[in-house]
Amino acid sequence: MNTQTSDVGRLFDRYGRGYVSGETIFAEDDEAGEVFMIIEGRVRVTKRVRLVERDISLLKPGDVFGESALVRGHRRPVSAVALGACKVLAFDAAGFEALLREQPEIAIKLIGQLVRRLHVAEERIENMMLRDGRSKIINTLIKLCEAARPDEGGRILLQISPIELSSRIGLDVDSVKRGVLDLKENGMLDIVGESIAVADAEALRKLYRLIGMKEELRRG
Prior knowledge:
By secondary structure, the chain is an alpha+beta fold. Helices cover 45% and strands 25% of the residues. The protein folds into 2 domains: 5-126, Jelly Rolls; 131-219, Winged helix-like DNA-binding domain superfamily/Winged helix DNA-binding domain (Arc Repressor Mutant, subunit A), CATH 1.10.10. Helix 4 (133-146) runs antiparallel to helix 7 and helix 5 (162-169) packs across helix 6 (173-185).
């Protein structure tokens, strides 16, 4: 977030709230009354599908969420839960609109977030059409590589945790971890600290196409 520290402090005094780990910020189907911005910590966004709660996204400081409150009469399509202790700013629709007028850089940031969320939603729809979890993992890693820049050595470092990758793919964390480790063992990537290092994104694309061809042959 590009606001000055003093501005954040002033806003927190007026609009700030703190949540402990696991505390619900809002629940699915609640009336949407406020828009939130994360100051510290992280927030899990989840949705219940039949009897199973699925991770939708993992939000970080500077992210805006709960924007459905900007449309009068809407209810929450998802739940938001604090992942660890976190601090947020909570605005009603009028207060948030006033903030956007005062600080247009926040409006630009929000538009960027909404565009990225749309891309992730499109990616998820594509993944839903894939049969096996391995293809879903590889497809998502390819998309992440396309949006990143290689380092001086030509590697692409993807700074994404297993829970973030799980949320983005739509698979459980254990399945994602197993899939990533399998790709590591086959020399397709490496794990460097908190990052996934991809030395050859084209090799991932070739593997993805190969798996697809094998699936087509089985169907035939």
